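Handout, section B. The chain below has 365 residues.
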Amino acid sequence: MSVRLKLTLSYAGFLMIAGGLLLTVVWVFLLRYVPEEIHTEPPGRFRPGPSVPDRTALEEAFAPKAGLVMALLLVFGLLGGWLLAGSMLAPLTRITHATRRAADGSLSHRIGLEGREDEFRELADAFDTMLARLEAHDAEQQRFAANASHELRTPLAITQTLLDVARNDPDRDADELVERLHFVNTRAIDLTEALLLLSRANQRTFTRQHVDLSLVAEEAAETLLPLAEKRGLTIETSGDVAPTTGSHTLLLQMTTNLVHNAIVHNLPDRGTVWVTTGVRLRNAELTVENTGEKLTPQLISTFTEPFQRGTQRVRSDHAGVGLGLAIVKSIAQAHDGHLTLTPRAEGGLRITVRLPLDYSMGKSK
């Protein structure tokens, strides 16, 4: 049985029950006030005759009329219930149609349900929102796959070229060839590991645990301190306890990427990186700032896109594979957080990550 038929029978059954109860009340009321029998005298001359049982006559007159009313109620209930159920389920039919189109791969279709705000309207709007996010995610994944294919093809093509040159030139310096092949291979490995890390963050396949961002920030700063000193930079860490929940490994990778990005995209000398943590607006907050060239909002809006390295920024041999901030964004989103990039007025960049606060960890401390 379809839902429409079930609703129709339910409406008709309810109407029949209501009608039966109403007729029962009327019948009980009549029986209460009508006597068992009364004597009537015919008009005109007096004719003695038998008494007339009025209640019996009432029953004989009421029963067929009640049966006719119940039959009409049944027909009316079935017809009206069928039309009413169809009208009520029309939005659900549109939602089902849109679902089937989405299952066939069409994510551009929208329900666009009109009318008043009710449960069906809320369901249709939520479904449209889901389709919009799926469409954007699908487009992003396709763009990412194309960029990843291009980035992975580059080191392979370079390796092939170097090998062809070495084969055609036996007198070429083997040490130089090995060094260049080692460099290209290392970049390819870094890119592959970054892609795997990004995929893991997007899938959210990790176990959540208590994490203090202040300790994570100190660990990341200590790990990258030699690189900062080599470039003549200073790393300053400060702030309060910032408890959250998530993967310690991923959050450490996120923080390391932020500090590494602040180091390699800094002033050539005497630059500074500030790493601060704390609790603000019911969020655990991590902020990484660095000195550097002045940046425009239009430029920094592209930094979290995969393989967007910011061509106008100071570059070095430690610039990475173009997935640093893309990984940061994915890890933050996987932890239900938010990433904000803001250019500093003095030059450089301020990056803030806000994650849900772990109240239980705060109380235990």
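Note. The radius of gyration is 39 Å. Compare this with the example in section A.
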